[in-house]
Amino acid sequence: MSQKREDYISWDEYFMGVALLSGMRSKDPNTQVGACIVSPDNKILSMGYNGFPIGCSDDEFPWAREGEPLQNKYFYTTHSELNAILNYRGGSLEGAKMYVSLFPCNECAKAIIQAGIKTVIYDDDKYKDAPSVIASKRMFKAAGVKFYRYERTGKEIKITV
Question: Which of 87, 108, 110, 111 could form a disulfide with 104 if both were Cys (CB 3.0 to 4.6 A apart)?
Answer without folding.
Answer: 108
